[in-house]
């Protein structure tokens, strides 16, 4: 069973819905039923409903003794209260285990699919690197290796017994056949749209989604969608998905909605990093980079078997309503919903600044992430029409 992670001080107000003033924030819109569930000083994100809809899972940045962790999976009652650790064995106090990210709940069994990042690092440090293209001011791609896992809340088994799918994100490779000066090789990098968004926002393209039967998952490696049956060694790519992230399986099992990032103009550049030495600057890193400027982000839908994707609207983070009548998605001005045929658009009031929508199993409410002026997110809930 999940363990409560300490009794947090009232002044700290980690996730107390009933926290007194001055913790009660302005919503920007006076909308009955819109409420803020979490008050963490860190970053709360990626809400997902429990199977019965009585609680919400989410990822928090630092929690109790895990103050330095960038991803602790916790749950909070739907109406607010104190958050509890979901995987206390997987994430024990003061542990240095990889963060747990982007939860997805199996609608039948309650199993949770989650992602972990195993390797995130830059290639040539941006603050001391010069590139031969004057318009190349971006940091190098950082997202490299991760994994997708499935676990039952309260399971006593170690994490290495969870069904696991390795993930490799395109963007960073090393060519050791080339030896400029005294280096061991050259970094070959590609700054895809998903790598840009990860650098800028910490956005992880993986976000798994279960099919209605709980038999398979759909996930993303940033460039395409993949279907995976937990327990199998490999996944199968969905044909026709390009630069696809954040998939969401439809309730009828026939379609997958996802975010597609358009690629802008391509250019190539060579970057070098030098270090100061007694005999003058020394070359320590060479990177040959291909970059794509960012284009539009589109909500698209494709049959599960693959084929031709249909672009519905500009936006990100699609999520289906339980009856399949709507697809919720994020725009700069809040959360909207669109019919799967693209015929009807509606804005969800009270969601200004919101992203990562998730509809409750009863279709009555929408959980979402809302970021403050400091860029940190909290979990909010809004009533649905």
The end-to-end distance, rounded to whole angstroms, is 35 Å
Oligomer: single chain
Tally of individual helices = 1
Judging from the principal axes of the Cα atoms, what is the shape? globular
Structural class: mainly beta
Low-confidence stretches: 1-29
Largest sheet: 7 strands, mixed
Instruction: Report helical residue fraction.
Output: under 10%
Approximately how much beta-strand content do the residues carry? 35-45%
Mean pLDDT: 87
Q: Radius of gyration, Cα only, in angstroms?
A: 22 Å
The count of strands amounts to: 27
> Order of SSEs, N→C?
EEEEEEEEEEEEHEEEEEEEEEEEEEEE
Describe the structure.
The strands form six sheets. Strands 8, 11, 12, 17, 18, 19 and 20 form a seven-stranded mixed β-sheet that branches. A four-stranded antiparallel β-sheet has the order 1-27-26-25, with no helix packed on it. The model is unreliable at 1-29 (pLDDT under 50). The chain has one helix and 27 strands. The radius of gyration is 22 Å and the shape is globular. 2% of the residues lie in helices and 44% in strands. The protein has one helix spanning 193-201; strands at residues 35-36, 44-49, 55-60, 72-77, 84-85, 101-105, 112-120, 129-131, 143-151, 163-168, 172-175, 186-191, 209-210, 217-220, 225-228, 236-237, 244-249, 255-275, 282-303, 310-314, 316-320, 327-331, 334-338, 345-347, 354-359, 365-371, 377-383.
